[in-house]
Amino acid sequence: MPSYLTLRERHDRKLASYRDGVEALKPELARYALAHGGRFILFGSAARGTPHDESDVDIIADFPERGSVPACSFADERCWALGLKPDCRPLEWTSDTVVARALEEGVMLGGEP
Question: What is the residue-level pLDDT of the chain in tens, covering all 113 positions?
Fold first, then answer.
Protein backbone atom coordinates (compact mmCIF):
# COMPACT_ATOMS: atom_id res chain seq x y z
CA MET A 1 0.00 0.00 0.00
CA PRO A 2 1.45 3.43 -0.93
CA SER A 3 2.48 5.82 1.80
CA TYR A 4 0.85 9.25 1.77
CA LEU A 5 2.17 12.45 3.28
CA THR A 6 0.02 14.29 5.75
CA LEU A 7 -0.60 18.01 5.27
CA ARG A 8 1.77 18.70 8.18
CA GLU A 9 4.50 16.60 6.54
CA ARG A 10 4.04 18.43 3.24
CA HIS A 11 4.16 21.77 5.02
CA ASP A 12 7.30 20.80 6.94
CA ARG A 13 9.02 19.59 3.76
CA LYS A 14 8.15 22.80 1.93
CA LEU A 15 9.61 24.94 4.72
CA ALA A 16 12.71 22.75 4.95
CA SER A 17 13.20 23.08 1.20
CA TYR A 18 12.85 26.87 1.49
CA ARG A 19 15.41 27.03 4.31
CA ASP A 20 17.83 24.78 2.38
CA GLY A 21 17.40 26.96 -0.71
CA VAL A 22 18.13 30.15 1.21
CA GLU A 23 21.25 28.59 2.75
CA ALA A 24 22.46 27.54 -0.72
CA LEU A 25 21.68 31.02 -2.09
CA LYS A 26 23.71 32.98 0.47
CA PRO A 27 27.22 31.97 -0.69
CA GLU A 28 26.25 32.44 -4.35
CA LEU A 29 25.10 36.00 -3.67
CA ALA A 30 28.18 36.72 -1.56
CA ARG A 31 30.52 35.53 -4.34
CA TYR A 32 28.70 37.63 -6.95
CA ALA A 33 28.77 40.68 -4.70
CA LEU A 34 32.47 40.38 -3.96
CA ALA A 35 33.25 39.91 -7.67
CA HIS A 36 31.19 42.98 -8.64
CA GLY A 37 32.03 45.38 -5.82
CA GLY A 38 28.68 45.51 -4.07
CA ARG A 39 26.48 43.76 -1.57
CA PHE A 40 23.13 42.08 -1.23
CA ILE A 41 20.97 42.61 1.84
CA LEU A 42 18.86 39.55 2.59
CA PHE A 43 15.98 40.51 4.89
CA GLY A 44 12.48 39.53 5.94
CA SER A 45 11.57 35.96 6.78
CA ALA A 46 14.55 34.62 4.83
CA ALA A 47 16.96 36.50 7.12
CA ARG A 48 14.98 35.78 10.29
CA GLY A 49 14.55 32.09 9.47
CA THR A 50 10.78 32.35 9.92
CA PRO A 51 9.29 31.46 6.53
CA HIS A 52 5.67 30.57 5.95
CA ASP A 53 4.01 28.77 3.04
CA GLU A 54 3.92 31.84 0.79
CA SER A 55 7.32 33.33 1.69
CA ASP A 56 9.44 34.93 -0.97
CA VAL A 57 13.09 35.91 -0.62
CA ASP A 58 13.47 39.64 0.06
CA ILE A 59 16.74 41.02 -1.28
CA ILE A 60 18.10 44.52 -1.81
CA ALA A 61 20.97 44.90 -4.29
CA ASP A 62 23.45 47.69 -3.46
CA PHE A 63 26.01 48.00 -6.25
CA PRO A 64 27.89 50.96 -7.74
CA GLU A 65 27.53 52.39 -11.24
CA ARG A 66 24.17 50.93 -12.25
CA GLY A 67 25.23 47.46 -11.19
CA SER A 68 22.15 46.85 -9.03
CA VAL A 69 19.80 45.92 -11.88
CA PRO A 70 22.09 43.19 -13.28
CA ALA A 71 22.70 42.04 -9.69
CA CYS A 72 18.94 41.65 -9.18
CA SER A 73 18.73 39.66 -12.41
CA PHE A 74 21.44 37.34 -11.07
CA ALA A 75 19.66 37.00 -7.70
CA ASP A 76 16.32 36.31 -9.41
CA GLU A 77 17.84 33.60 -11.62
CA ARG A 78 19.55 31.90 -8.69
CA CYS A 79 16.39 32.01 -6.58
CA TRP A 80 14.26 30.44 -9.31
CA ALA A 81 16.92 27.77 -9.89
CA LEU A 82 16.77 26.89 -6.19
CA GLY A 83 12.97 26.75 -6.13
CA LEU A 84 12.57 30.10 -4.36
CA LYS A 85 10.36 33.08 -5.21
CA PRO A 86 12.61 36.15 -5.48
CA ASP A 87 11.75 39.71 -4.52
CA CYS A 88 14.93 41.59 -5.37
CA ARG A 89 15.06 45.33 -5.85
CA PRO A 90 17.87 47.83 -6.36
CA LEU A 91 18.67 49.98 -3.33
CA GLU A 92 17.94 53.15 -5.27
CA TRP A 93 14.41 51.92 -6.07
CA THR A 94 13.61 51.06 -2.44
CA SER A 95 11.95 53.32 0.11
CA ASP A 96 13.99 54.64 3.02
CA THR A 97 11.68 52.83 5.45
CA VAL A 98 12.27 49.44 3.82
CA VAL A 99 16.03 50.07 3.55
CA ALA A 100 16.21 50.98 7.25
CA ARG A 101 14.34 47.80 8.22
CA ALA A 102 16.52 45.69 5.93
CA LEU A 103 19.71 47.18 7.37
CA GLU A 104 18.47 46.58 10.90
CA GLU A 105 17.38 42.97 10.53
CA GLY A 106 19.14 41.87 7.38
CA VAL A 107 22.08 39.68 6.52
CA MET A 108 24.80 41.43 4.47
CA LEU A 109 26.25 39.31 1.70
CA GLY A 110 29.36 40.63 -0.02
CA GLY A 111 31.39 43.73 0.64
CA GLU A 112 30.72 47.42 0.93
CA PRO A 113 29.36 49.12 -2.20
Answer: 678 889 999 888 999 999 999 999 999 999 999 999 999 999 999 999 999 889 999 999 999 999 999 999 999 999 999 999 999 999 999 999 999 999 999 999 998 76
- Rounded to two decimals, the pTM is 0.91
| DSSP assignment string, 3-30 | ----HHHHHHHHHHHHHHHHHHHHHHHH
Cα–Cα distance, 48 to 46 (Å, whole number)? 6
Give residue limits of the domains in the chain.
8-110
CATH number for domain 8-110, candidates 1.10.10.10, 3.10.20.30, 3.30.460.10, 2.40.50.100 = 3.30.460.10
